[in-house]
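Bug: token stream looks shifted between consecutive jobs. Job 1:
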Amino acid sequence: MKCLGRDEMEMFLTRSGVTDRSGMANHIAACSDCQRLKNALLEEQEQWAREMYAETLPESFTDQVMSALREEEIEPATSEPITERTGRVAVKRSRKIWWVTVGVASILVLLGVASFYSIPTVAEIIRSLFSRNNVDIGLLRAQEFGLVQHPNIKIKDKGYTLKIDEAVADPTRVIVALQLYGPDGKHERDRLRLSEEGSRIVVKDEQGKVIGKLYDMGATNDFYYLVAFFPEPIQSNRITIEGQIGKLDGDPWDKGFPAIKGNWNFEFPIDMTEAQKQTKITELQGEYTSPGGMTVRLKRLTRMVQGVRLELDTELSPEALVRSPGDLWQKQELMFHFEDAAGSEIHSVNARKFPRRDSLMTQSHIPGDKPGQMHLSYTFKYLPEDQPYRFVLDGYSVAEQDGSSVSFAPARLQEEPVFFRMDGDDIRLKGFTIEQPPDTKHKKTEGVLHVDGKLWNDPSYDDWMVQDSEGREYQASMGGSLGPNGSDRKHGILELGEDYEFRIPGMLTVPERLTLIRNVVNKRYVNVDWLVEMNRSPENYNKEGLVGSIQQFGDLNLHVGRNEEAKGQRRKLSFLLGIRIIRCGSFNEHEDGFVGLEEKTEGLDRILVN
């Protein structure tokens, strides 16, 4: 993998549009140049935070001001009328009173500013979920509809204070801003780690059933950005966030602090009634069968405050099903994107390019009632409400039986590399070693086949094995950094990093001869040609310049009316964030659902920094 540029590193740190996060993380860990760039950007972010969010005034500030005022002599105003004779004296007195008045007014202004930044509904909003680096379209809409709740959780134990001032929920997701302060009053960003044991935060429905678990999304150092996504829109009108926090982790970087056990448990309810009212469902129509034997059917579009859920069905033909016996047919993935009327990409799913526009929050794959049929759903942060856009199918992948193989002498690979070339994949076998614990991943001796090259197919569901000259078989697992090396979302390839390898547990010595066998390939098909016009009436639809199979299923304009209360919420949000929010066109420049500091020229709401 190549070194990351500044823009790519910023995308990595903000988790925006990153397709191979684990590969990037592995590269950064091994690359000193990328580590320096990462540290520089983190320091820059901290500097901005210090400059933007200065410390609040001390509690003794008011007493100091009042003490200073008591020492100042303020002469009472005369009740006698001012005449020509007393004019000079009156001027002298008025000057003194004027300076005192100016001083008092200045102090009141300072106190007003201090109180402004100490009001939780203002200061905490600016410093948490709604700071400009964290807010996305879903959060803006939640604020607009008054769905931001303030549970005011504050729990102290063993010198550590846990605070929660904001939570947002709708049928799509729950977001919680959690802060943890140490005995010195500083925010401890790395002490809380959510897991099954020790510390976890769950979402429960009205019957007390766990329907989600929050995890730390990262993205900011100011607080723990906790998120739970729901694969299916929840139906409850009331949910409960329950924290079971009994442990703060120890030092992961040898800074000398131990793990701490305590009790920071909490729970608070979230009323979902208003969020449920904003949920709108539209049934869709549209069907396409590819030359490879997959049929894709559009089902419905569900608009919620913080997201839009697209549901589809897929079905394999009998001929295609033969290639995917057993449960292989269940391992299906779609590749598609949305674009506006001008052809500019809005979002893409499983695209083969970097960077890509991706606001996918969650997805689900559920087998249907018969072999070959799958129910798929994808939930996005945003899709246009008032402007026409298109659903474009780019391809799909499905796990199929393979059996392709290549034989080689492991000890000679460095001098004589061998190539595995099949179905568009081109893998170079360049070396073989035997590794002992602790350098292995399975706590036992492993054979390691070092490779590089390029992949056309998706390796997600591949199944590999090796066989030695004695007929012994070993499972082989692929791992390492990989990512798209171009800008073609449909025909791009995956490039294997220098660290890519096959791990072969249980192989103790270098065999004289090996055969690498791919039992299952996650085969990728792009010979598709289908798009569907959405949010556009037939009379306004112009087919000129469009190719492929085009279907129209009516007007999907589900624009939620802005009442006076919602307008007031938008004005309040504009004031809090120091921006102006203006209704305008489609999100041609929208990236990963996040609104950055720069001006977004078009979108659900136009953001202009004051």
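Job 2, same session, no restart:
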Amino acid sequence: MTTAQAHRTAAKHHPRRIALFGGSFDPIHSGHLSVARAADRRFNFDEIHFIPASRPPHKL
């Protein structure tokens, strides 16, 4: 088995845990990071992606 095959096999049995954190982040501050860290501690994510909203509905 090649290394690439081993990675594909492992990925099938252990999917990556990816968090999507949306918000205006204008600007990003310690509160945003604190929430992301708390979620990571609770759910043990492999990745956390911050997704900025171009026009948040509560700020129209």
